[in-house]
Design brief:
Layout lengths: L6 H11 L24 H16 L3 E10 L10 H4 L6 H14 L9 E11 L5 E12 L15 E3 L11 H5 L10 H14 L3
Antiparallel strand pairs: 1-2, 2-3, 3-4
């Protein structure tokens, strides 16, 4: 099962699992409560979500904790990326808040607007065993946001070496799936490491 109530994250995680012939239900579909994320890192929060779901559903659980880390903002929003969007999940407003803070700092040139996404993926089993892997993708923040694809902060994030934001890429382009690539997105990069650890193949 996939330990998330986020439809965008659920869709991406199902896409990553599909080539391995793994079908999954979500915590939201099973009506499971969301645990309190009390960790101080992405990896700790992914473990909290995966272990809680595995115990509740008595199934192996796959969880992600990810976020945007903005260098000029001292690493914010970081592990609080979803909270910046508020209970209504308004990421347009959250992107506007980030831009406002960058402008207040005079961070207008690309070299002052560096950022990266981090994804920590964890698989936990009901017996307590777990595996966790992290992936990262570097880039810069653009304004105004571009593209309606993806979710979260994707429309303002331009990955290093590319001319389109994550919000302008199809899911296949964003993931950068094999053959020919070892992953572009933070979630795909973490997933390939996890696939090697848990499935013995990438």
């Amino acid at each position: 099962m996939i330990a998330t109530h986020n439809p965008g994250k659920l869709a991406e995680m199902r896409e990553l699992l599909a080539p391995y012939g793994i079908a999954a239900v979500s915590a939201g579909e099973l009506g499971l409560a969301e645990p309190e994320e009390t960790g101080t890192s992405f990896a700790e929060n992914a473990l909290i979500k995966a272990t809680a779901a595995a115990k509740a559903a008595e199934l192996p659980a796959f969880a992600d904790d990810s976020g945007l880390v903005v260098d000029a903002l001292g690493g914010a929003p970081g592990i609080h990326s979803a909270r910046w969007a508020g209970p209504d999940k308004n990421f347009r407003r959250a992107m506007g808040d980030i831009e406002e803070k960058l402008q207040q700092l005079g961070a207008m040139l690309p070299e002052a607007r560096t950022a990266h996404f981090i994804s920590a993926l964890c698989v936990a089993w009901p017996d307590g065993h777990n595996e966790t892997c992290e992936g990262r993708v570097d880039g810069v923040l653009l304004w105004p946001p571009r593209g309606e694809k993806g979710f979260g902060y994707d429309p303002m994030f331009l990955p290093e070496g590319h001319e389109r934001t994550f919000g302008e890429m199809t899911s296949e382009e964003k993931h950068g799936l094999p053959p020919g690539s070892r992953g572009l997105s933070h979630r795909a990069r973490a997933f390939f490491k996890l696939a090697e650890a848990c499935l013995g193949k990438a």
